[in-house]
Design goal:
The chain has about 500 residues and is an alpha/beta fold. The chain has 14 helices and 18 strands. The strands form four sheets. An eleven-stranded mixed sheet has the order 3-4-6-8-7-9-10-13-14-17-18, sandwiched between helices. A three-stranded mixed sheet has the order 1-2-5, with no helix packed on it. Strand 17 and strand 18 form a beta hairpin. The radius of gyration is 22 Å and the shape is globular. This is Carboxylic ester hydrolase. GO terms for molecular function: cholinesterase activity. It is an enzyme of class 3 (hydrolase).
């Protein structure tokens, strides 16, 4: 097998020179599609032009246009410079590779409006040291990544408006074509992501255009918000054009708008944190696909955190106010809520738990049941670890996104945890990262148990099992049966009712 001494690789597009750090080879800013600018804005990603000579791949590319302050505060760090020319990916690989290695492709979160594959929590070095190839991906964000308008209809022979999802699909195709040159096994690709990245994974599991491009999936803190219907997306596109003074615009007029004009939009013009359903990329709503068990058949891991409601304030959700609304909901009355959440009397706390479970926890249960219906394994988890120095600050548990630096084993590299994590926290993080790599290496329909500190069994047909990671902020792991079963079964029925009505 190829055993490179320098990080020089030959891709189908040309030669790339990376850099070496601590026995890991790194290539940054690799183009996986043509720049989506000018006439290519709001079009499917096009192939990269070949280059001659050696292209340096040692610096991260620009990220898609976004709110830099928002990303610094909530998205994982400083995304650097911005450009509409943003379709690049990054690769980490062990310097010595004697056989094809499992590949882990990461899709970042950020509500489809912020983030980048280059952010510090997503540094792939520690995972690569465990014997996998790590790929992190940029994709178009905001209105550049998801946009519908009548003037754009029919340009490609089919309706397309989920351009960010198409970017992710193009990156997966690049992996299929090129990852062997980096030492990766193109027949063992795990697609994983958090929040909007997890929602992207779910969407690709439902997309006919992504079938066969990956072989395992990890869904971290995916959420149950319904996709935006195409007609609503078209109406928003027309309102956006009117906002810029364009009445009955041509596609050329829309594409002439400045690339940095979209991300500051607020109110009804602000893009939602979900894809559009009804185009060729996502013909049917993602939730409907899982309720009817028509997802791509492959092994999955799915889970969420104990304080996912921490993200609700970002979207202006009044947690106590949600309980007031639920009191008036005929199908989900106050008495039933009290029965499901015994001992929780404060509306704020009750709202925190109910919103967490309806928006996040229930999704893992939905995915598990969909997997059982098609005979595919599903590993479920509940992440509840908080670094020891944070116990007095984060009393409600692990907040939205908290698991990411544990998964990548980057606690000691990112703000603010690098300033206070201790040896226990770092040891725990290493065990979490081991589980994720073991999934990429071992998960299959024939082997439904992952090795680790405790053996982690999948929820196969007839078995509702879940791995608790953290055990109420304590350092440990425990397999539980029928976790929150009564709550999740009820919320699933309520969700299914509304999906059916739609």
């Amino acid at each position: 097998m190829h055993n490179p001494s320098t990080p020089l690789v030959q891709t189908q597009q040309g030669s790339l020179l990376g850099l070496a750090e601590d026995n890991i080879h790194i290539w940054r800013g690799i183009p996986f599609a043509a720049p989506p600018v000018g006439a290519l804005r709001w079009r499917s990603p096009q192939p990269v032009a070949r280059w001659t000579g050696v292209r340096e791949a040692q610096t991260f590319s620009a990220a898609s246009w976004q709110n830099i302050d928002y990303c610094r505060e909530l998205g994982g760090g400083d995304p650097g410079r911005f450009s509409e020319d943003c379709l690049y990916l990054n690769v980490w690989a062990p310097a010595v590779r004697t056989q094809p290695l499992p590949v882990m492709v990461w899709l970042h979160g950020g509500g489809f409006t912020i983030g980048a594959g280059s952010l510090p929590p997503y540094d792939g070095q520690q995972l690569a040291k465990r014997g996998v190839i790590v790929v992190t991906v940029n994709y178009r964000l905001g209105h550049l990544g998801c946009f519908a308008h009548p003037a754009l209809a029919g340009e490609e022979g089919e309706r397309v408006c989920n351009f960010g999802l198409l970017d992710q699909i193009a990156a997966l195709k690049w992996v299929q074509d090129n990852i062997a040159a980096f030492g990766g096994d193109s027949d063992n690709v795990t697609l994983f992501g958090e929040s909007a990245g997890a929602r992207s994974v779910l969407s690709l599991l439902a997309s006919p255009k992504a079938n066969g491009l990956f072989h395992k999936a990890i869904i971290q803190s995916g959420y149950t918000l319904p996709d935006t219907p195409l007609d609503a997306a078209l109406a928003q596109g027309e309102a956006l054009a009117a906002h810029f003074g364009l009445s009955n615009p041509t596609a050329e007029q829309l594409r002439a708008l400045p690339a940095d004009a979209f991300w500051p939009l607020e109110g009804s013009l602000k893009p939602g944190p979900v894809p559009v359903c009804g185009d060729a990329v996502l013909p049917h709503p993602m939730l409907e696909t899982f309720f009817t068990a028509r997802q791509h058949p492959l092994p999955m891991m799915v889970g969420s955190n104990s304080d996912e409601a921490s993200v609700m304030a970002v979207f202006g959700v009044d947690l106590a106010g949600q309980i007031q609304k639920l009191r008036q909901e005929r199908r989900l009355g106050l008495g039933l809520i009290k029965l499901l959440y015994p001992g929780v009397k404060d509306d704020e706390e009750l709202g925190r738990q109910v919103c967490r479970d309806m928006a996040f926890t229930t999704l893992g249960y939905v995915v598990m049941q969909a997997q059982q219906r098609i005979g595919q394994p599903c590993w479920r988890y509940w992440f509840d670890y908080v670094a020891e120095a944070e116990h007095q600050t984060y009393l409600n548990g692990a907040w939205h996104g908290n698991e990411v630096p544990y998964v990548f084993d980057t606690l000691s590299q990112v703000e603010p945890t690098r300033d206070y994590v201790n040896e226990n926290d770092l040891a725990f993080s290493a065990q979490v990262a081991d589980y994720w790599v073991n999934f990429a290496r071992h998960a299959s329909a024939d082997d439904d148990t992952l090795p680790g500190p405790v053996r982690w069994p999948a929820s196969v047909k007839g078995r509702d099992r879940l791995l608790r990671i953290g055990l109420n902020k304590l350092r440990g792991f425990k397999v539980e049966n029928r976790f929150m079963r009564a709550r999740l079964a009820l919320f699933r029925r309520v969700m299914r009712h509304h999906v059916t009505l739609d």
